């Protein structure tokens, strides 16, 4: 009987502590962090959004598709990586493909992408960098490798009647090195590059 | 910069940061759990909940408190998911289905954070905050509390008690996790992690398309997700998602966060048993395995093994450009060697040997450095086995820190190292042995076929039993079989070891201390570090080699 009473008492202690923890950790803590974030760093806290002409056109952290309504790549824009998030870069469905290293399906996708890029960009298939052929883990990768950006210069320049040198110079100005020189990999942010590109020429 | 140099630089930065934190954080935690002084806010809290902070509990009562608090957590978390539509900020999402609610409730209470669901389309902000964020804190604090109880078992003499669970839990949250999470969350926001209540926002892109951008109170959850080695993502893509892990330096910082408490706890241990060298020996064993595993992972991921990987010219499927091979490999090693299970790249798409190594890391029992608390008590059990093996070799009664390792201690330690493998192997076998289940597993759940499909199932049970939470995420785990079986495995994989550890602690505390003699095995030297690592590798390798040969080994060496 005394053990049972002791147990019941413990349950009562547990319930009260749980309620306090839920209040403090589940409500007060996140609201305090939200308040600080919104006051001290509202840009980041709200998603590092980019506005163009008064309306939001995206986030510098989230990648986008630069395709027509049918999902066909538009040659005048630098292309993002393939994406497995929804129908591509769906911000409500982040996901990788989760296909394995020996997956026939993945092998087929890579082969198809390689052929498509070689045809559209007029390059040697063997020279296409891996990030151009593979989907990222989030499906929302905002970046491509500098190699993939450089590989697209000729196509973009031709589609916009710009000189390759001009476009190439723009690309190089958007190459971001590794963080602190040694963390992660070098990148080019596709949306920011394309916005600068649009400013350079209104397109065909 | 070459891969080797990058690995050395990034790993080196982590080692320096962790080394700098080791003494101050370890000492602070030791102080937290030994001081008799209570903070004012704590005194008020004890008064409200009706606990005398000076009253110690026997191991049985300590255990009962752990279990009671955990049951309350499971029931509450299950309940709010089922009632989601009535909560604010539900984002129009329906109640979570029964078996999924069951699985998710257990998953977060057990510090596993396995996610059978896609958060964006399943959970609103209320459940994320008052459900998941809370469990991220308390499940981590419970892990540390149990580890501390075991350390007290070594430190005390002729004692029937191990401390007070309610006090340990409260101090873990109030003095350690909450202050660290608070500062971390702000750093994460500055780094680009979002923190808002905006919901989904539709925007028009420059090509005239539309895109939906998610919002959410992410940073506050992300901080404790990493610090508490929880790993449950706010978004489906977890730390691969740019709003959870926006830049390379934030990702390296996240690796640091998941390692810092587990790697500092050996200092706490050394301090509490009155011999800091004992802490160095334990952290030495942990660090050796962690560095070796991290280097092997980079090597595996830099290879072009696999037909698809070779065709792409690099293992970039499932990898973010900003992180690249090295940072993703380091993240994968640390997340599976701790009980975190967060991912910044998709393990399912890793090379055969890389994905296999992630599994091996978990199969080592997550002790290098392991989860918050669970890593320390896990490796102390291995150390006890190591002492015992050494004792057998020289024919002396084994002792560890002045405590005799007798029949009862060895029985408990043996059961501990058998419990998790049994859950992994039985769970995986049943998935293929029961005809109806097999149809569902092969027909619905496995995303890949053949060897890799088998690996997906093996990975799931390994992750659940070790309370890791990472996945070969192609597996469709939101089925009645996986939700139920993995739920049960997570529960048993968390609490069976805890029961055994607390029983062990009780048994050690009751003993006196035998003085060290010339025949006592010194447990602070390199010799013992090697012995502990050897014991760990031997125990795990023998248990898991056959099943690894069926999946990742066969695929990686094909």
Automatic annotation (TrEMBL), chain A:
The lineage of its organism: Bacteria, Bacillati, Actinomycetota, Actinomycetes, Micrococcales. The chain crosses the membrane at residues 12-32. The system is composed of three essential subunits: KdpA, KdpB and KdpC. Belongs to the KdpC family. It comes from Subtercola lobariae. One of its GO terms (cellular component) is plasma membrane. One of its GO terms (molecular function) is ATP binding. Residues 85-97 have a biased composition (Low complexity). This is Potassium-transporting ATPase KdpC subunit. Residues 85-104 are annotated as: Disordered. Keywords: ATP-binding, Cell membrane, Ion transport, Membrane, Nucleotide-binding, Potassium, Potassium transport, Transmembrane, Transmembrane helix, Transport. The keyword Transmembrane applies. The keyword Nucleotide-binding applies. It comes from the Bacteria. It is a single-pass membrane protein. Part of the high-affinity ATP-driven potassium transport (or Kdp) system, which catalyzes the hydrolysis of ATP coupled with the electrogenic transport of potassium into the cytoplasm. This subunit acts as a catalytic chaperone that increases the ATP-binding affinity of the ATP-hydrolyzing subunit KdpB by the formation of a transient KdpB/KdpC/ATP ternary complex. It is found in: Cell membrane. It holds the Pfam family KdpC. The gene is kdpC.
UniProtKB/TrEMBL annotation, chain B:
Pfam families: KdpA. Its main location: membrane. It is a multi-pass membrane protein. Keywords: Cell membrane, Ion transport, Membrane, Potassium, Potassium transport, Transmembrane, Transmembrane helix, Transport. The chain crosses the membrane at residues 62-80, 129-151, 172-194, 248-267, 279-300, 375-394, 415-437, 485-508, 528-549. GO terms for molecular function: P-type potassium transmembrane transporter activity; potassium ion binding. Belongs to the KdpA family. This is Potassium-transporting ATPase potassium-binding subunit. It comes from Subtercola lobariae.
